[in-house]
Amino acid sequence: MAKVTSLRNEPSSQAKTNGTPHRKLPHALHVAAEPKAISHAHTTMEQALDKGLRAAIAKFTAGLSPIALTAAYADWALHLTAAPGKRLELMEKAARKSWRLANYATFCATNPGATETCIDPLPQDHRFRSENWQKWPYNLMYQSFLLNQQWWYNATTGIEGVTQQHENVVEFAARQMLDVFSPSNYVLTNPDLLQRTITQGGMNLVRGWQNLLEDASRLNARQKPVGAEEFQVGENLATTPGKVVFRNRLIELIQYAPTTDKVRPEPILIVPAWIMKYYILDLSETNSLVRFLTDQGFTVFMISWMNPDEEDRDLGMDDYLSLGVMEAVTAAQTIADSDDIHAIGYCLGGTLLSIAAAAMARDGDKRLKTLTLLAAQTDFTEAGELQLFINDSQLTFLEDMMWNQGYLDTTQMAGTFQLLRSNDLIWSHVIHDYLMGERTPMIDLMAWNADPTRMPYRMHSEYLRKLYLNNDLAEGRYNLGDRPVAISDIRAPVFLVGTERDHVAPWHSVYKFNLLSDTDVTFVLTSGGHNAGIVSEPGHPHRHYRIATKLKDAAYADPERWMAETESTEGSWWSALAEWLSARSDAPVAPPPLGAKDKGYKPLCDAPGTYVFQE
């Protein structure tokens, strides 16, 4: 299928695209369709010099500000220098750990075959699970590494006077450096690798070298990883039948074909994140949330975001709201001929949908009958390890990098997310593909992950500063139009989903919606991570979830108490969502047609559309 590389000449409003009168939006959301110019157009020569220098440095630092890192290190080092008591404590800990390791070494020497340990890895650390690690001398190696890792954690935390953000950065950096020297990363110190190398006469290393060269070649040519070519959008990904029924310069709106004789009259509009392609919610036939919902008797619409480039540098959050969410709400409601709509937002799309819902509620727009937020944050005070990269110094550096090119590149985002889970995404790959000489089989979720999108300069800067850095939405300072919006204005019932191992939107952060809202909230905590926990179709093995509803007048329960009091249920939370939506929908009716030509929404092309192919 041909790939679309540019669709920049598309009309920028519904009226121009489909020929239907443009419905007037609530005042706060009725913003200009064309993007607004920002400081890029007024940059002085001196400012351009500064920005250009920082942008050039960013190419060699993967977008990380050396000044921000130096400031964090200086804060830690100077406060540690001024804390003789803390240094004495660290000396005592080092002595105790050395004595502990010596006793363990003596025990191992006098008790061959013993499997006792003096320190256990963290629950999420799977590097030393093999039985071979319990044999001498490898047990001594990895126990020494873990003790050293524990000591450095003590050395980088708990120092009075160091800001929390700087402490987190230093602890994170120390952990990353230590992981480089983990005994699991080297042939001679990893018993599994050594055994494989001896058994295969070193051919695993030959294959690993070939894998490394192939990956480096693909990376240099900006090609997708090995095996991704087996997954093609429209062939075995994003295959749910449907039509693109609306298009503007920022979105294509897909309406999916019904699979039941009767459907609920209220359509579902899904707002995915724009950091990746939309089809994570329509992967293969067996794990497509879209297909599942249509099979449950719902009419489903999905936004497919345009992949921005340098021409789109001045698109902002208000454009994503007006051209994205609000245009889609109007189109879905008009085509389905319904006064009400169920809205679902995932990740960044969920945050954007929350802002839109708050503004609509503020202005008396009651079209949203329910609101479902999947791994989406509205309060960013506990936004996980991504906060490590969010301060004024780092954001200025990142903005200058985006200023130079007009967007945040996909490779620059990928590096940050890989660092957050370096053991899972970097070192495990090195061991398996380059030292073991094996290839990790490509799956649909991995193929989707290798198909990212760019982020416009203005929008990403606004998102990071207003939400991550200043937490404006949670604190009532996020303005649409000339007035702020508040989550507490939302009255539609909310279905809120968090995932247990989310490194992007930690579930404690997602749960904070309960502190901001004044409506009934059904909170679901599901197994898995940010992506795999959401793509959790019925029948998927080893899945469980917890679910409980907090009525708007009920007392607040903190996350730990909520988890302790809520029983775990085996299976997929998708079924719970379908039941929840059905209970808040009217009696089934005949399905609406695909598009509504007489209302200006004629079908434009088959799903998955054209924007999804932009590279």
TrEMBL record:
Polar residues bias spans: 1-20
InterPro entries: AB_hydrolase_fold, PHA/PHB_synthase, PhaC_N, PHBC_N
Keyword annotations: Acyltransferase, Hydrolase, Transferase
A Pfam family: PHBC_N
Gene Ontology BP annotations: poly-hydroxybutyrate biosynthetic process
Poly-beta-hydroxybutyrate polymerase N-terminal domain segment(s): 47-86, 124-293
Region (Disordered) residue spans: 1-25
Molecular functions (GO terms): acyltransferase activity; hydrolase activity
PANTHER family according to UniProt: POLY(3-HYDROXYALKANOATE) POLYMERASE SUBUNIT PHAC (PTHR36837), POLY-3-HYDROXYBUTYRATE SYNTHASE (PTHR36837:SF5)
Protein name: Alpha/beta fold hydrolase
